[in-house]
Write a structure and sequence with these properties.
single chain, 292 residues, Four Helix Bundle (Hemerythrin (Met), subunit A), Nonspecific Lipid-transfer Protein, Chain A, five-stranded mixed sheet
Length: 292
């Protein structure tokens, strides 16, 4: 059976992108310091430029026109990227993407968001595009990923500026079911390939939340796949999507997420989760002290 994006998830993804982009843009138009450190390595302006570069890349993906970005060797770097090298790709892009003026970044982001929403309004949400690491991602998954970039990097920036940053769980959940699980339904290419040590036996983890369908992911023989709903599992993870995403992207630790009950870990072999997450992980940022 072919993969079908539920109509309500497509509507939510489009609404979430518009709202998240507008909220992110507001961080660049208030009286704030663009040189404040949002992470240990990136200023507020750097973080905004990073998100804008992704939005501009996505414009070219949905329009299927021109080179991805005016950055040397970007096509080859994107095609070969995996979770271990995405940070290097991001640094390369930022070195060749000089815009740091907050007002200009805000305007360009608004233009890119408008274009993405306009073009994709004419596309079936199941339409796939070739993404980082030669993965195949649906258009709905693409929007979901951009929402997550806006929300997570917006969290970094708001934290640096000591500003509130609400994170709706229903919006955050789109990253998990429409981007990540959707990508596993198709093909993740080399994206999840990692040079890290592999577990000696398969590990099956069942993930569930109030906002997403339950899914079992299996790490076996250096590959990641979705399992049947009734297959046995080693670990069960119940999560709150917004805080779960912060954990996945290194903004908070698994231990802190568990203590806060943002992530509840159980199952017959819960001690196997760390080995799973060492392989099935997302790029993260080195955080700066809050308010610095």
């Amino acid at each position: 059976m072919s993969y079908v994006v539920p109509a309500q998830r497509w509507t939510l993804a489009r609404t979430a992108l518009r709202l998240s982009s507008d909220r992110f843009r507001s961080l660049l138009t208030v009286d704030s310091d663009p040189t404040a450190m949002a992470t240990r390595d990136w200023t507020v302006a750097d973080s905004a430029a990073h998100v804008l570069s992704i939005a501009m890349l996505y414009v070219t993906l949905v329009e299927d026109t021109g080179p991805p970005l005016p950055v040397p060797d970007i096509g080859a770097l994107l095609a070969a990227a995996n979770v271990d090298t995405v940070a290097d790709v991001n640094d390369h892009v930022l070195r060749h993407f000089p815009e740091r003026d907050p007002g200009r970044l805000a305007d360009l982001l608004d233009e890119a968001t408008d274009t993405i929403l306009s073009v994709t309004a004419q596309l079936p949400p199941e339409t796939t595009v070739r993404w980082l690491g030669d993965a195949r991602v649906t258009v709905c998954g693409l929007l979901a990923h951009l929402v997550n970039e806006l929300v997570v990097h917006g969290w970094d920036m708001a934290r640096a500026m000591r500003r509130p940053w609400p994170m709706p769980d229903e919006h955050a959940a789109l990253y998990w079911d429409q981007f990540f699980l959707g990508m596993l339904q198709h093909d993740y290419g080399v994206l999840l390939n990692t040079s890290g040590p592999m577990p000696k036996r398969p590990i099956a983890v069942r993930f569930s939340s109030a906002y997403t369908p339950s899914a079992t992911i299996v790490l076996d023989d250096r590959r990641v796949r979705l399992a049947a709903p009734d297959d046995p599992v080693d670990v069960r993870v119940r999560f709150r999507p917004a805080r779960f995403n912060l954990m996945l992207f290194g903004r908070t630790s698994t231990a802190v997420a568990a203590l806060r009950r943002d992530v509840v870990i159980g199952g017959p072999r819960p001690w196997r989760l760390p080995a799973f997450l060492r392989v099935v992980h997302m790029p993260n940022a080195r955080l700066a002290p809050a308010g610095r």
